[in-house]
Amino acid sequence: MELSVTGKIKLINETQTFPSGFTKREFVVTTAEQYPQDIKFEMIKDKISALDKYRAGDELKVSFNIRGNEYQGKYFVNLQAWKLEGISSAPASEEPVPAEIPDTMLPPEEKDDLPF
Question: Which of 68, 77, 83, 99 could bond to 63 as cystine, CB 3.0-4.6 Å?
Answer without folding.
Answer: 83
